[in-house]
Prior knowledge:
Layout: H1 3-23, H2 28-47, E1 59-76, E2 79-98, E3 101-122, E4 125-130, E5 139-148, E6 151-159, E7 162-163, E8 172-173, E9 195-198, E10 203-205, E11 214-230, E12 233-252, E13 265-269, E14 275-281
Parallel strand pairs: 3-14
Antiparallel strand pairs: 1-2, 1-12, 2-3, 3-4, 5-6, 5-14, 6-10, 7-8, 9-11, 11-12, 13-14
Helix pairs in contact: 1-2
Amino acid sequence: xxxxxxxxxLFFLTQAAVLFSAINPQSKDEFYSNFxxxxxxxxxxxxxxxxxxxxxSTWWELKILLTSNVNYxxxxxxxxxxxxxSFTTSWTGILEPDEEDFIIYHVNSYFVKWDGxxxxxxxxxxxxxxxxxxxxxxxxxxxCILRKEDKYNFDFFVQGFLVxxxxxxxxxxxxxxxxxxxxxxxxxxxYNSYVKEGSNKVFLDKKxxxxxxxxxxxxxxxxxxxxxxxxxxxVYFSQFHETEVIISLxxxxxxxxxWDRPAVWKPYKALCARVVFIIDPA
Length: 282
């Protein structure tokens, strides 16, 4: 029905109400109680905003940027190994709605920064090994996102490696950042139990995933120390890292630039209950 027709009907009903009330004043209240819905409903309808389905997001660009500063120290007899390095890793993907969850497509991941060194000191020597010469480097692993009530909880971690990287008789597992959902007793310890400041609970509120850009930052520090016994000799190993995670979402819709999905994608992870799972390129 056009606007002109609605205006005409409203005018007609109003005039009818005035005329009816003039003829029979006692029935004025009865008239309005019977006919007010007819008068008011078109007016209310005219004020409702028109929902343009083209503005609804059909997918989102997801970016995870993780930066960590790492320190460790191994005291083994007269030798002391000290490591100090930092790295930044970037993970990008696409989110597509799947009823109450999402399907995630892994698009790209790489190290933005990887820098530092490890030194070994004895009473007679001092040697330094740069991270560019390390035989192993960290690796970022995005497991899944779990939906819990009104939150989407991220499950990812950075795989550590054995230290010291300098020549040594014994090696130890260096533990690197993990989110709260990935605590799973890494290397026989609970990662979450050694978070000292901040929180490694990385999540997005369901209501925050809307048709506007979103950026959320999480920070925490972590420390673990342990005495080992190697050939009846005590070895002290301490490790510490500070971590910052930035989650960014950019909404896209059918009218915006699309992304080129390869013809073949294979399941990457789909093992978590109530999960947003990840699909990797084949």
